Amino acid sequence: MEGGDLYEKIKTKRKYTEKEIFWIFLQIMKGLDYLHSRGVAHRDIKLQNMLLTSHAKNPRVKIADFSLAEEFRFTKMHIKCGTPGFMAPEIFSDEFYDEKVDIFSAGIILYIL
Fold first, then answer.
1. What homologous superfamily is domain 6-64+71-112 in, according to CATH?
2. Catalytic one among 44, 65, 94, 98?
């Protein structure tokens, strides 16, 4: 992707307007909604996995790196995986968890922005 990832963009830009944050976060949430509606949990939502289509003011955001993704409709997720600092607390428990762990990770991104 021409715009790199969100991590690199944050390092260079430093400050976003509320409108820019809304645009970025809306796209992340729409992407997660699509994945979850298809029965897929990403499980590694983080800044480095949010790719930007360009260096424009409001680039499109694409979710990348599905190496830890899993279908949750037919199986219960229990493997401890993800990037520390972006992982939901339930992943660390010995219980099963669901796709909502992606929403928690997206919340971490929103907080950082």
1. Transferase(Phosphotransferase) domain 1 (1.10.510.10)
2. 44
